[in-house]
Design a protein that fits this description.
This protein has about 300 residues and is an alpha/beta fold. Helix content is about 40%, strand content about 15%. The protein has nine helices and nine strands. The strands form three sheets. A four-stranded mixed beta sheet has the order 1-2-5-4. Strands 7-9-8 form a three-stranded mixed beta sheet, with helices on one face. It is globular and about 60 Å long.
């Protein structure tokens, strides 16, 4: 097990490299085609989420992997598959919750001292390998989920069925938290309907941070300073990419978000935990959307 600071640094350095590599063409690790590889799962069928999802996307894109199935060396061996000699693995994180109960009153606690129940989380790093790096796995069942056949109309119904008002007109695309409302350009302003859905998913993701929902501090303080605004935009970018992958649709770049690139890199280089926070908040936003989709929304068959 690596020290926690090494885990943060390893993952952050990988994502910084992926961001810098794609900066010229504004191709970030979270832009994707909607293929199954963007919904990574373990050989046991468990879906990766949060920072792990982002890390595995970046690795798959950099290495050209076509499979969305990953496992540790021993997990592949358990199904009689063998990681090829010389292959490099990818670090993923497992958070382990440990409950602590004792009779001591913590510093700063003004309780009666009858006992304290606290939970602590520890990060453990595991190295996983993609199915494309393995021999002997061809005859094993591939548990990755096939692409969801979601049309653009169904995706729009899903996003517009959340109860957040969406107004189309002569607007730029933005979300106003004081009105709790998304403003969008008319359909003809977009190069494609997929661009429209990608943009709407980003703005809807912003809305999950409203005080009546997840109460995200970066949305609350959005206009206070550029660095806070950049962190909220990063959260919305990653969260929208998760959402579009769940819909089986590509998440396309928005050129106006390139203005935040320098701020993102500064934040990541100065705080190895920044991308972990953004990815966790992004996953929470996407999860909220799935949990609160209205009756008019298309039901999603998300990978288990």
């Amino acid at each position: 097990m690596k020290p926690r600071h090494d885990i943060y640094a390893t993952v952050t350095d990988q994502l910084i490299a992926a961001i810098e590599a794609g900066a010229g063409d504004w191709k970030m690790p979270w832009h994707h085609t909607g293929a199954p590889v963007m919904r990574p799962t373990s050989v046991a069928g468990r879906r990766y989420s949060g920072i792990n999802r982002l890390v595995l996307w970046a690795t798959a894109d950099a290495c050209g992997y076509a499979s969305g199935t990953w496992a540790t060396y021993q997990q592949w061996r358990s199904i009689d598959a063998q990681v090829r000699k010389g292959e490099s693995g990818t670090h993923v994180i497992l958070w382990k919750k440990i409950d602590r109960q004792d009779g001591a009153t913590p510093i700063g606690n003004t309780g009666d001292g009858e006992g304290d129940s606290r939970a602590r989380f520890f990060a453990r790093s595991f190295v996983v390998f993609n199915r494309d790096q393995v021999d002997g796995a061809e005859d094993t069942p591939d548990k990755q989920i096939a692409p969801i056949s979601t049309t653009v109309a169904e995706a729009l119904a899903f996003l517009e069925g959340l109860g957040v008002p969406v107004e189309y007109g002569l607007h730029d695309a933005y979300y106003r938290s004081d009105l709790d409302k998304v403003f969008m350009p008319e359909r003809q302003a977009f190069d494609s309907d997929l661009d429209l859905v990608s943009t709407l998913s980003h703005e809807i993701l912003h809305s999950t941070g409203h005080g009546t929902r997840l109460a995200r501090e970066t949305l609350r303080d959005y206009h206070k300073e550029r660095s806070i605004r950049a962190r909220e935009e990063l959260t919305a970018e990653i969260g929208a990419s998760y959402l579009m992958a769940d819909l089986g649709l590509a998440y396309t770049p928005r050129a106006d978000h390139a203005a935040y690139l320098a701020s993102w890199l500064v934040a990541l280089k100065h705080d190895p935990k920044a991308i972990f926070t953004a990815a966790a908040q992004a996953q929470a936003g996407a999860d909220w959307i799935h949990a609160h989709a209205g009756a008019s929304a298309v039901p999603l068959q998300i990978a288990a």
